[in-house]
Amino acid sequence: MSDKVEPADSESPHRGERAHPRKLCSLSVCYDDVDSSHKGVMQNISLGGGFIETNDLVSIGQEIFLTIPSTNNKNFYRIKGEV
Questions:
Q1: How far is CA 44 from CA 12, 15, 50, in A?
Q2: In angstroms, rounded to a whole number, what is the distance separating the alpha carbons of residues 82 and 65?
């Protein structure tokens, strides 16, 4: 096995383009996995996903439940997701 990283094939459907445009944000969020609760800051979001900056380790494929506050911080949205 080589440690060399090869560029993505030009015919690959994953060429850096996303199906849904991301919007930058800085939103404090909480998320739960099967064992515990965690906190992080959502850095960007789209219809297809988002990026949460956190100090906690998460595994690819891990199921999480994300709690996002509404813009008025009076309501919360709970969303099931996968890392």
A1: 24, 19, 5
A2: 9
pTM score of the predicted model: 0.67
b/e code 30-45 from CB counts within 10 Å (16+ = b) = bbeeeeeebebebebb
Long-range contacts (CB closer than 8 Å, 24 or more residues apart) made by 53-61 = 58/33, 58/83, 59/83
Q: Could you report the per-residue pLDDT of 22-53, keeping only the tens digit for each? A: 999 998 899 998 889 999 999 998 998 899 99
Q: CA 7, CA 9: separation in Å to the nearest integer?
A: 6
In contact, 31 and 67? CB cutoff 8 Å: yes
